[in-house]
Write a structure and sequence with these properties.
The chain has about 180 residues and is of the alpha/beta class. The protein has a single domain, classed as Leucine Aminopeptidase, subunit E, domain 1. Helices cover about 35% and strands about 20% of the residues. Strands 1-2-7-6-3-5-4 form a 7-stranded mixed β-sheet, with helices on both faces. A hairpin with a 2-residue loop joins strand 1 and strand 2. The longest helix has 18 residues. The mean pLDDT is about 95.
């Protein structure tokens, strides 16, 4: 991975800035649309890096509901697996968006555990074209992943990765606070 900024919250939770497709972890999480057949942003980048086999495999999964997660092989990625999850579209905050976003993280982690995956990287789910406010989404990501690690002492590592410097700085600032 190209050198980026890194911040360790504890030995099992890391915040980094860079390209999720270049991480050497057991699984990367794809912020996918409900078809699981590719799109823009992180979704498009993961599909391009994994190769056309990811699209072909995902056709057999028959989509995914918001807040749920599905597992695919990593194909041409450094990661062995892709866990696709569908984040909520922001509709003002009164339509269960927070819980649906938390479900994306918890269901992805549950799927990881069921498949003996011990290192996983998450992008900022729903904060691109789905419009979820970044700071609010970052707090949910931190709370959900920290709670998971506190209950699963054998899990290896969770990486929260951002693409932009501003998002990285916001996430590391929030991580230093007691949420």
């Amino acid at each position: 991975m190209e050198a980026g900024s890194n911040s360790h919250i504890d030995k099992r939770l890391e915040i980094t800035q860079g390209d999720i497709t270049q991480l050497e972890v057991d699984a990367i999480v794809n912020a996918a649309n409900s078809s699981l057949l590719g799109g823009g942003g992180v979704d498009g980048a993961i599909h391009r890096a994994a190769g056309p086999e990811l699209l072909q495999f995902n056709k057999t999964l028959h989509g995914c509901e918001t807040g749920e997660a599905k597992l695919s092989p990593g194909f041409n990625l450094k990661a062995k697996y892709v866990i696709s999850t569908v984040g909520p579209v922001w509709r003002g905050g009164n339509n269960n968006e927070d819980q649906l976003l938390a479900n994306c993280y918890s269901n992805s982690l549950k799927l990881a555990k069921e498949n003996d995956i011990s290192s996983i990287a998450f992008p900022s789910i729903s904060t691109g074209v789905y419009g979820f406010p970044f700071e609010r989404a970052a707090k949910i990501a931190l709370k959900t992943t920290q709670a998971y690690l506190s209950k699963n002492s054998s899990f290896g590592k969770i990486i929260l990765i951002t693409f932009s410097t501003d998002d990285y700085n916001t996430l590391t600032h929030l991580a230093k606070q007691k949420l």
